[in-house]
Amino acid sequence: MILGTGGDVARAGESDSRPVLIVTGLVQEARIAAGPGRTVICSSSNPSQLRSLLAGFDPASVRGVISFGVAGGLDPELETGDVVVATEVMAGRENWFAGRSLSDELIEGAGLAGQRIVRERLVGVEQVVPAQAAKAMLRRETGAAAVDMESHIAAAYATAADLPFAALRVISDPATRSLPALAVNAVKPDGNIDLRKVLRGVARNPLVVRALVSTGRDFNRALRSLRGCQPALILERGPAFVQAHHNRNHAATRRPAEAGVPTPVISALGRQMAAAGS
Fold first, then answer.
1. Separation between Cα atoms, residue 179 and residue 73, nearest integer Å
2. Which of 37, 112, 151, 218 has the most neighbouring CB atoms within 10 Å?
3. Would residue 52 count as lying in a domain?
4. Is residue 254 a part of any domain in this protein?
């Protein structure tokens, strides 16, 4: 799914009127991200579909790429609703550094709703990582603060197109909690919940209800925090957006993980609450 409209390719010395490409995984994230000056791609949590969508997308029609949405927590110090602005994204033996100027712009606009914001490493995966033990292992192997299924694909696309890249992700399920299998399996391709599947699962195992309620509250709290970050997507159109080459994202050989390194706090304040969800 692609939302939004493009703009003109700017000439040298002119303000760049092209939109920014926002890459999301869920319909809920795409709706939050949509707005003037943005083209939004939603993968429906399907990495293969995201690659197909990007393969047919003209990189000359946008001026930068931002991965935007929720993520699973790997750093146990991070809580639901906390915001991670990526310093880099890794997947397998590759990693891509985020553009400094574009990331700085995201941070300036993201803290308006009082969220805690950190600047740390993300790791990209091809499947959901639901178990607490699996999250802990991924943290040890990569040193990443959070995990998602779109940022590594968006970073690779931006690098190939020589476009500035950044990622802003809000923690939904924290490192200290596992996602119930039913919550993962009941998500439809469009990101909505298959209520019939949930009800059948609850009928078979009523004890799962408490875990589902906690997961739903976490998810809605994360979405509320993500809405608070929406102003961060209103970016400058002038020369400030254009970064020097050494600040641009680029692929690099993966360096040893730095698990256990404290997460630097950029700003801090409140939390929000809600109920229901995935």
1. 11
2. 151
3. yes
4. yes
Q: CA angle, 64 as apex, 53 and 242 as ends, to 5°?
A: 160
Asked if residue 218 is part of any domain, the answer here is no
Query: CA–CA separation, 259 vs 139, rounded Å?
Result: 6
Q: Which residue has the tokens 């009928």?
A: 203
pLDDT score, position 256: 40
Three-state DSSP class for residue 190: coil
Burial of 209 (0-12, 13-18, 19+ CB in 10 A): middle
List the one residue out of 54, 47, 57 whose CA is nearest residue 150.
47
Q: Give the domain range for residue 35.
A: 2-178+225-267
Measure the CA–CA gap between 200 and 151, rounded to whole angstroms.
33
| 263 pLDDT above the threshold of 60 | no
Question: Has residue 105 got a pLDDT over 90?
Answer: no
CATH number at residue 110: 3.40.50.1580
Helix, strand or coil, per DSSP, at residue 173: strand
Element (H, E) at 105: helix 100-110
Mean pLDDT to the nearest integer, 170-174: 95
Three-point CA angle 53, 57, 58, nearest 5°: 170
Whether 274 maps to a domain, the answer reads: no
Q: 92 in helix, strand or coil?
A: coil
* Closest to 78 in 3D by CA, of 44, 120, 47: 120
Element (H, E) at 38: strand 38-42
Residues 6+ apart with CB under 8 A from 152: 89, 90, 91, 94, 96, 122, 123, 124, 125
140-152: pLDDT as tens digits: 999 999 999 999 9
Rounded to the nearest 10°, the torsion over CA 3, 50, 110, 253 is -150
Report the pLDDT value the prediction gives residue 208, as an integer from 0 to 100: 75
Count of domains for the chain: 1
Residues 276 and 119: their CA atoms lie apart, in Å, by 29
Residue 196 is predicted with a pLDDT of 80
